[in-house]
Amino acid sequence: DVVPDAMVVVDRERRIVAVNRHAERMFGYERDELNGQPLEVLVPERSRAAHARQAEEYVEHPRARPLGNGLKLEGRRRDGTAFPVDISLGVLETSRGMLTVAALRDISGSEASYRGLVEGSIQGMLVHQDGVVQFANPALVHMLGYGGAGALVGRRVDDLVAPDDRARVRALREAW
User: Residue 78, by phi and psi: left (phi above 0), alpha (psi -120 to 50) or beta?
Assistant: First the structure.
């Protein structure tokens, strides 16, 4: 209860066996309501399938995973609202078997601050996955002369590079 993060302990079947006061406040449940419940009660419905796969993999190959691991995860409050969380995982071997201990931190404020910095920057920025634009800030949209970020999302990053520079940029990216 003195840890500043929400703590949730689950068994091999992903049933909650213990939570601390901070978890009660973060998720909006009382301890007695959570104990014995499947962990998925704390996961938004849209994320449950992916979470179940990750949890099964973790149980098969447990390892310490610190906060700031880069996984994009969400928690679900009792009222159904989803919020971004950072999570640290560890394992305890007990007489009850292996238990997974999770420390969770609500990063809603951090994400909002980060988004504000990125969207307000005079530097053009984009986020891509496998070479496809997922996000572009207003400065980049303006620099490239597009009508809005929606015109960039889904485009190939290479399409945004001058044709004469594409081979050089591709080589630099591959070298990196």
Answer: alpha
